[in-house]
Amino acid sequence: MRNVCPSERIPVQEKIQKNEKFKPTTSAPSSGKGNDTKEQRGPKIPIPTNYRKAVKYVRIAVEEKRNIQPLIEKDKHFRVGRTLVGRVLSNMPVIEAIYKQLELASKEPRLNEWLAKVLISELLFGSGRLVGNSLPVECMMRYEAQLRTALTDIEAKKSPAGNVKEPRFVRINTNLLNVEGAKRLLAEEQWNLVEETFTDYRSFLERVKKLGDAEYMQDYHFPDMLVFPHSAKSYWARAQHLSDKFVLQNKACLLPTYLLKPPKKSVVLDMCSAPGLKTTHLACLMKNKGRIYAVEYDRARYALLCEYARGFGVIKTIQSDCLEVTDEQVPGVQYVLLDPSCSGSGMLQRQMVPEPIDEDRLYKLAGLQYKLLSHAMNAFPHVRRIVYSTCSVHEMENEGVVQGVLRHNGHFRLLDARKELGKEWLNVGSPEYAGIGERCLYAKTVDDLTIGMFAAVFERCPEGVVNEVYVAYEKQKHSYDVVAQKMSRQKKREGQNGQSEDTPAQHEVQEKSSSKKRKKNRE
Ligand SMILES: C[S@@+](CC[C@H](N)C(=O)[O-])C[C@H]1O[C@@H](n2cnc3c(N)ncnc32)[C@H](O)[C@@H]1O
């Protein structure tokens, strides 16, 4: 089969629909001061409405820090809004770094900063093309080569995967198409399947790094996950005609769903479910049979969840705070997936342009995550298995939360997630959390070429059994209580209020972080 260069690669459907080819200008960036005369510029061509609207919403989101989802939803003439704006916001750290690196603010003072960022996003992370010939579009096109080089530099220098560009992972929607059907369809689209077998995970990863532009592979761990080269990103961003049969989802996001392993006809609760990528994967694993209660409290995200869940009869969506969901509302729940809000520090863009660690924010997030996980363990008497996952690389949100819940919930124990996965996995949690770290899994960009992800699997203990972390903590507690009482008496004497409103997990997190600080000071 012919090897097609990625820049040539256009989804078949698009080839049919396309009636105009974009021709980038070849001239160099403007003289530097943005002071071309009116005559030189010619008649004013309006900026496409979608770009103008994206500028408006991106600015509101970033400058005013407002939730723009409801605004976009109401905007009936901005159907692509969520995708377009979402793309800018999720790539913002890299876009800002590139905007600064190219000194666009000083070189193109007449070019609106937000518009520049939207255009950069479309060029580098969207379709790879810009629409129309308005002045800002033409101006940005003159920087195209420099923009792409800047992105390559950032990715090469800061890529958490080293010099390797992360692949494009694509999940087959097995509710519509089986694996063989997917392979046939992709062959029609001129993709070549690499049909080698791998005895170990590392040799698979090495082959992924060498994928040619027209090649793809079936994943080593998950049969419904396909792996394409990085260069396939623009193909998949444009492959609208395949969007119901294939889901753009990172491989790491399948760890929690595969670890939960709900058989068909089981009853599942997805506590924090929007936009619903894991929910729909669970539905596929269950062959769309049984019941999945998918809970989401955010109105706009709930709307998105409903959209994603359409076509999956097994999913029942509930708009609510999952801490208020009772057993009566979701009768007979046996399996719980908890994938709550987190710092998102495992996301690629965040790893490329790292933000300073905000301990206070992590501390608050860990407290919430602890509450949610405790609710999963205590509110639903029939639950036998729980998977907790985050896309955070911070122990405080991961092993820290797991330790907190195990200490206070003897009736659930932590399973060895590597064993549960049943196939070789490279990274586990920190050995600092004895009896916990080695049982939890991490997906790491540098090794797995995925986003960063953490997953822990809990199982209800048999009647009369309690987990060993709980037992050890109970033993420790006596001396701990004595010290706490002493401290409280001392505080009272000093006229202070010794009451704390922290959750136990937050208390432990605080203890741990101050002990780390003490250790650092000693060093
Ligand atoms: C990390 S995202 C979930 C992603 C989702 N599992 C997926 O794979 O598509 C976390 C979601 O949980 C929602 N959320 C956070 N706290 C919640 C709560 N107490 N009740 C319901 N939803 C909550 C957030 O609004 C957000 O949509």
Automatic annotation (TrEMBL):
What keywords would UniProt list here?
Methyltransferase, RNA-binding, S-adenosyl-L-methionine, Transferase
Q: Which GO terms describe its biological process?
A: rRNA base methylation
Region described as Disordered: spans on this chain: 1-46, 484-523
Q: Which residues bind S-adenosyl-L-methionine?
A: E296, D321, D339
| Domain named SAM-dependent MTase RsmB/NOP-type: residues | 158-461
Which family is this sequence assigned to? Belongs to the class I-like SAM-binding methyltransferase superfamily. RsmB/NOP family.
For this entry, the protein name equals SAM-dependent MTase RsmB/NOP-type domain-containing protein
Organism the protein comes from:
Anopheles minimus
Recite the lineage of the species: Eukaryota, Metazoa, Ecdysozoa, Arthropoda, Hexapoda
